[in-house]
Specification:
globular; alpha/beta; Alpha-D-Glucose-1,6-Bisphosphate, Chain A, domain 3
């Protein structure tokens, strides 16, 4: 049995994610951490989160862990508290970018990374065998409350100890808990800040929690009307960020990841960039022109964090969802850090659009094909058998099946770790060729699903 998906435990509230599961997960995490020490717990605004948080907290306390309840908090802010106070770990109660009815539990260790795959397996063994430990009456953990905002703001301002007067930034907070902290951070460094969608609302009325380009018309319009230098849109728990340039154009996260990679390689005189298997080929341009290496991982922050921790001279990681990770900060996406780093870059090299214009153009399409969870394994195995017959392509099996053609165009087919769908990622340097590859990808998955 599996609890964990691509990142944490997620599911429909009061269906997969129930109070009973949350209590048991709290007991399990307590045992995983040795039944002593303190963990932080924070949450986004989803409607079922109070129920989940207090159930989880009951399990943590019963297992002997002290709990610092941070209330509403972005996930990166929770991790800054873990790092500053040297806590044993943390749990973010959040569905992140998923629809409002999907809730989740993300588990973090003292170094701020999510559980690695091998650690998830240990967690699941404790959970399903119910081999967790309950403390006696005098060993039950202590509960206290605090806020993450002060520590988060101070940590970032101490790292970027300079001003960016004259810059204008639009922030679409996306009804996440990030609004106040991010506004304070940007205003403290001298920016004029315009805020959108600042109210905490677990129904996400203004736009969906995922900051995809098609949902950002309000942000794009505000950036151009305000003559801003850039805009930034967050997801439901404030760990993903999608940027908009000064012209009002969305910069795809692969290209922002490439931009940050370029300047990390320049400033640190080389190093290793970590990115998942579905990353755009634009990263090859950066590596070839600015002198770096890369490590490809499975999709998801746990795999990226593990590679950052274990790879010598790994300096930066990103993924196409809008997570940008600097190991000297926390091992997770942090839009506040990303915004300040971008201001540093713009202050020395001009506008966001002019920097992005350097990169070659690639055409990318992402599709989701409905596929029941119980059929995913069989469909994936069938796809692998079908594609092994192809002699003119390279197959990469890091996560799902990636088909790489001689000209570097590629198709990636993999089962989603969070939803009942099979995901197809397709990239080409030609818009016409992209559509051909999309048809090919759909045909492969549809053929594989027959009889499964």
């Amino acid at each position: 049995m599996k609890l964990f998906g691509t990142s944490g435990i997620r599911g429909l509230i009061n269906d997969k994610l129930t109070p009973e599961l949350a209590v048991k997960a709290g007991l399990t995490f307590s045992t995983f951490l040795g039944n002593e020490g303190m963990v932080a717990v924070g949450m986004d605004a989803r409607l079922g989160n109070f129920m989940l948080k207090y159930s989880l907290t009951a399990g943590l306390l019963a297992g002997g862990m002290n709990v610092l309840d941070l209330g509403y908090s972005s996930t990166p802010a929770v991790l800054h508290v873990v790092k500053k106070l040297k806590l044993k770990g943390a749990v973010a109660v959040t569905g992140s970018h998923t629809p409002p009815e999907i809730h989740g539990l993300l588990f973090f260790k003292k170094d701020t990374s999510e559980l690695f795959q091998s650690e998830e397996e240990v967690f699941e063994k404790i959970f399903f065998e119910e081999s967790f430990k309950r403390e006696k009456w005098d060993g039950i953990g202590k509960y206290s409350e605090s806020s993450s905002e002060k520590i988060y703001v101070e940590n970032l301002l101490s790292r970027f100890n300079r001003e960016f007067k004259g810059y204008k930034v639009v922030v679409d907070a996306g009804h996440s808990p990030s609004s106040n902290a991010l506004c304070k951070i940007l205003e403290s460094v001298g920016c004029k800040v315009y805020m959108l969608n600042t109210d905490l609302d677990g129904r996400f009325p203004s736009r969906p929690p995922n900051p995809l380009p098609e949902y950002l018309d309000m942000l794009k319009k505000k950036v151009t009307n305000a003559d801003a230098d850039f805009g930034i849109a967050l997801d439901g728990d404030g760990d993903r960020a999608t940027f908009v340039d000064e012209r009002g154009n969305v910069v795809l996260p692969d290209y922002m990841g490439a931009l940050f990679s370029k300047y990390e390689l320049i400033d640190k005189k080389g190093g290793v960039i970590v990115c998942p298997i579905n990353t755009s080929n634009v990263i090859y341009y950066v590596l070839e022109n600015y002198g770096g290496r890369y490590v490809h991982t499975r999709i998801g922050p746990p795999a990226m964090a593990e590679a950052l921790v274990k790879t010598e001279n790994a300096i930066y990681a990103f993924e196409e969802t809008g997570k940008y990770i600097w190991p000297e900060n926390v091992y997770y996406g942090d839009p506040g850090f990303a915004a300040l780093r971008l201001l540093e870059i713009l202050s020395r090299d001009g506008s966001l659009s002019s920097i992005i214009d350097e990169f070659p153009k690639y055409y990318i399409k992402k599709l989701a094909i409905p596929c029941p969870d119980e059929k995913k394994k069989a469909v994936l195995e069938k796809i692998q058998k079908m594609l092994y017959k192809k002699e003119d392509v390279e197959l990469v099996l890091v996560d799902g099946v990636k088909v790489v053609f001689p000209n570097r165009d590629w198709i990636l087919l993999r089962p989603s770790g969070t939803e009942p769908v099979f995901r197809c990622f397709v990239e080409s340097s030609s818009e016409k060729k992209l559509e051909e590859l999309v048809k090919k990808a759909l045909k492969i998955v549809e053929e594989a699903m027959k009889g499964c």
